[in-house]
Amino acid sequence: MITLTETIEVPRSVVSCFRYVADFRTTVEWDATAVEANKLTTGPIDQGTLFSVRCKAGRGHFNLAYEITEFTPWQCLTLEGRGRWFTAKDVITFESLGDDLTRIHYVAEFTFRRGLQRLAKRLEPGFKKMGRASLKGLARALTDENPPPEASRDTQRRDSKLATALTCFTRYGYRRGQKTWRPMTADMAGKHVVLTGANAGLGFATAVSLLEAGAALTVVIRDPTKAAAMQHALKAETGREADHVELADLSLLTEVSALCERLHARGQSIDVLINNAGALFNDYAETEEGIERSAALLLLSPWKLTESLLPLLRDHAGTARVINVVSGGMYTQKLRCDELIMTADKYTGSVAYARAKRALTVLTELWAGAWAEHNIAVNSMHPGWADTPGVQSALPGFRRVTKRVLRSPAEGADTMVWLARATEAGKVSGKLFLDREPRTTHLRNRTKERPAERARLLDWLTETYSGLNLNDKA
Question: Domain boundary residue among 143, 172, 187?
Fold first, then answer.
């Protein structure tokens, strides 16, 4: 048997330390040997939760199947693992030394199969060295002092050519980016997040991750018949439901205004606002308020929602965050305000969608400049090509061609979660992100808007909204 014993002290609360370590998927962020870790069971992390961990060993790899066999919140965690050559037992205890100081004591025992004792003796120095490196990695992760995000040279090179930039949208682009990610350990307990479009796809995956991180979550969905099923699914996966469910058809500006009134009446400040709700409409239609529905849902709605909720976002002690979900499709379009509302005779769903997302990207940059003095970081992200219900219904031909390289909803949502949660994500504003890196907003020079058009966007939004006569329609 090889026994490793290490102790670290980190400037974090015992609750956040336990929550982070108990999710053994995080081992890839701090363990010196782990290269992939997955949760195999559904439901909240607890005794009986199973994980698979793939570790490197020299030039090869080996797999371990772990089970949590003891789960005493904020105090003790025991995991037992089985591999081809040995079994492992990790006993991790947590001791609070104050509000923001925790001692973590880690004991790992490796028992080799019969006949491999000599091998164990030879490997013992290497195992102990690995154990020390892993606990140093855990201490670094929980100290949470990552630098502000920057695009790597490889990413800048890939973004300089259309073909290589597009490969980054795939699941392989996600895996490439994942190799250089820094730990995401920030705890979201006490943080209030408002998330639109939460009942499926990227939004649901985001809701799961935010609840697991401890956030207080308000979700906004359109269909009241789906609320109970969504809450049931969230609780089955995380042990928690969303704290509040708001019903609103965000393609209707009167309902956006009513939603904002309810949130103001509640009086709860907002730490993170995620404008995720959206849809690609292949057929032309106007809302009952008399505006083409793509422009209404994808642009006017997040503009009105965010501007109206500004008093709940501004001047916090910590940086508040606004996250606008855009799309890689916006790379095909140039901002022209007069073309944001398409007419029936010229309507193409994918173009209307892309134009609205281009405008939302520009709006992100304008807000970032205007609201920096209020301690608000505003960023946009696009999820790459993800296999969501929206893609399946609106773009069946695209999905048929690209199915093998599409990301999962969780992979597509990862940067959304990172922008909401990671400490370093609050240090930048006005950027477009993919896979936790700032990316170029233009892949072709022909899509770059004129300065006058950028300057006009906010006035165009105000004028378009004012011209809807919503009081009469309400």
Answer: 143
Question: Does the pLDDT at position 407 exceed 60?
Answer: yes
3-state secondary structure 173-189: HHHHHHCCCCCCCCCCC
Whether residue 148 lies inside any domain: the answer is no
DSSP letters spanning 416-444: HHHHHH-TGGGG--S-EEETTEEE-S-SS
pTM of the prediction? 0.94
Task: Assess contact for 406 and 172: CB atoms under 8 A.
Answer: no
Catalytic residue status for 353: yes
| Bigger pLDDT: 367 vs 61 | 367
105 plus 172 within the same structural domain:
no
CA 130 to the chain's CA centroid = 30
φ/ψ (deg, to 5) at 317: -65, -40
Taking only the tens place, the pLDDT of each residue in 51-78 is: 999 998 778 888 999 999 999 999 999 9
Total domains in the chain come to: 2
Same domain, 159 and 124: no
Whether the per-residue pLDDT at 293 is higher than 60: the answer is: yes
Full residue range of the structural domain in which residue 378 is found: 153-473
- Shared domain for 111 and 162, answered yes or no, is no
Q: Are residues 185 and 122 in the same domain?
A: no
**Which one from 174, 347, 353, 465 is the annotated catalytic residue?**
353
Q: Can you spell out the DSSP letters for 128-153?
A: HHHHHHHHHHHHHHHH--PPPP---H
The CA–CA distances, whole Å, from 272 to 210, 268, 376, 379 equal 11, 12, 9, 11
Local confidence band at 371 (pLDDT 50, 70, 90 cut-offs): very high
